[in-house]
Amino acid sequence: MAAAARRAASLLPLLLSSPSRARLPHRQALTLTPPLLRPHRLYSRSPKPSSSAAFSASASASNGAPAGRARELHLYNTKSRRKELFQPRVPGGEVGMYVCGVTPYDDSHIGHARAYVAFDVLYRYLRYSDHKVRYVRNFTDIDDKIIARANQLGEDPFSLSKRYSDDFLSDMANLHCLPPSVEPRVSDHIDQIINMIKQILHNGCAYAIGGDVYFSVENFPEYGELSGRKLDDNRAGERVAVDERKKNPADFALWKSAKDGEPCWDSPWGPGRPGWHIECSAMSAHYLGHSFDIHGGGEDLIFPHHENEIAQSRAACCDSSINYWIHNGFVNVNSQKMSKSLGNFVTIRKVTELYHPLALRMFLLGTHYRSLINYTIEQLNVASDRLYYTYQTLQDCEESCQQHQSKAGDPLPVNTTNCIQKLHDEFETSMSDDLHTSVALAAISEPLKVMNDLLHTRKGKKQEKRLESLSAMEEKIRMVLSVLGLLPSSYYEALQQLREKALIRASMTEEQVLQKIEERTSARKAKQYEKSDEIRKELAAVGLALMDGPDGTTWRPSVPLSEQGVVARFIYWSNRS
Fold first, then answer.
1. Does an H or E element contain 209, and which?
2. Count of helices and strands (H, E) across the chain
3. Contact (Cβ atoms closer than 8 angstroms) between residue 127 and residue 97
4. Smallest Cα–Cα separation from 80: which of 263, 321, 325?
């Protein structure tokens, strides 16, 4: 039964992935695990080189991965509406990346998780490709929504935004999103915002009325080039404020005059606060310059936010230019748009009460970042099961190799080097093609199956250089997981956390499960096989699978019995293809 379960689980890494499996040769790579996520080593291994070039050279002799340059990265540019070769503005210099951050007035939701996991992967892959990156992600800590929520709760707006900002950062850390280089807040950059507005006014692209300042879209002929919209599409009341004083209904606020009870700052136009769009133009210019490499955010920001950013930035500095506009797709919940009005608004914290945060990350990475993703409990269960299988295999590998010290220069069996080479090729090919994380995840399925054969089958245990092969494959999978942000500090700890979450979902304690196992064991000894099956099915129904082995019966988290038809159908069609 245990072997059958492993075979079924080995197919789970494909469930959330694209069927496309392109393959081209590529180099070995550097693991980029941040200090707080540094893997816990259970056995001796020579230290990793500090640069990817050195790692490529040393690795090629041991595991078959070729030395050489990384595959060229292509990214889909919203502005050009096509995939383009990524070429840094300054060759060999620092890549500048700005991603629009949250407006912290409530708990962060899975749409936020989708966006910031996607750009975390881009950040990691750029670093993996030996780029230095300055990553800026802001907090909009003063906004109409924050003010309204603070008034509702009777709380200071800055206190409320600080509280939700801290919660957001905690959520991001749990999802293994690396901290950006800079995380500026609007309230700390009022001077930069005022100076940019003054420059836009000086250049004739804005006008002041009664303490408010508006951008004049008619004075910026290129308006609409990002979104493809025409000025006639921007009717008042549809994403633009209704104000009869505006020269054009599509004109938008750069500065809002103060209202009673709202935070405000002094300005040349009187007390007030910034409009939404100007903040990102001012902060990106302050930290990255008027021209930089990548600007990112959700698809919903293309218009009006990013369209307005382009207009403001160019109106303030005619040389302003951003090379790549990158946007992630939307999140649906059970095939419906997520919204509070529909009652299907899902926060990150609500998910992670029942599931490991990396199961949510695994689920998100199972769909290409630009595609619509449909959140369902069934798919999250599959992702959680897939994660458990991956970590269990790697944990078994560590335990087997704990006391093993491989000899430098010893060649690995050809089938091992071929397996590692194939994983390397598929990983870099998929990631360099606009970050196809689903294909990269699918690529680890075959090596995990090979590792399980080496660990648990009679034939595998007899293979030449078995432990060396296991160690080399674990190292390569570790690299892939690190770049994808799925590498835990300890496989053992992650497995324990996954088990704890499974027990919470099942509304059971470990002691209750062990009691059920004892009852089933007694029933089997008494040849009460019907009762034995009932206990097994009872636990399977709540996502707890029993595993019978030579040393007795254990349990592991699994996809609940009622949802296993999803897996069965997938296996059936996979075998037919």
1. strand 206-209
2. 20, 15
3. no
4. 325
